[in-house]
């Protein structure tokens, strides 16, 4: 019985699931961060109240899902403030946090991220 021998230069590709993809220049304006075993790439897609999906093309590298949640809350707050300045109510919008494989991880409703206003100081005098 004959066995098929794989040349050693190709064995790594078979072990890793196939040949590597061709390298293409990134469309992103900022260089990608160096890979780190303690971080993951998260995407923050925004869905409007009428169901329009605004996809995040670049994503953000963060240490964990908790950090991604805080980022989504901050994004929602900034968008709420921007909408208020334009006279638009965005409380029914939401941020959908996705992983690198485009799997849904978490949804943050904008109304959950109500902007916090600094209290006014009363001047004594």
Count of DSSP H/I helices = 2
**Count of distinct strands:** 5
**Strand proportion:** 15-25%
Low-pLDDT ranges: 1-28
The share of residues in helices is 10-25%
From the alpha carbons, calculate the radius of gyration and give it in angstroms: 22 Å
Describe the protein's architecture and organization:
Helix content is 23%, strand content 20%. It is of the alpha+beta class and 125 residues long. It has a domain at 40-113. Strands 1, 2, 3, 4 and 5 form a 5-stranded antiparallel β-sheet that branches. It is globular.
Q: What are its keywords?
A:
125 residues; alpha+beta; five-stranded antiparallel sheet; 5 strands; 23% helix; 20% strand; disordered N terminus
Brief digest:
The chain is of the alpha+beta class and 125 residues long. The chain is built from 2 helices and 5 strands, in the order H-E-E-E-H-E-E.
SSE diagram, text form:
Elements: H1 8-15, E1 40-47, E2 53-54, E3 60-62, H2 65-85, E4 94-99, E5 104-109
Antiparallel strand pairs: 1-2, 1-3, 1-4, 4-5
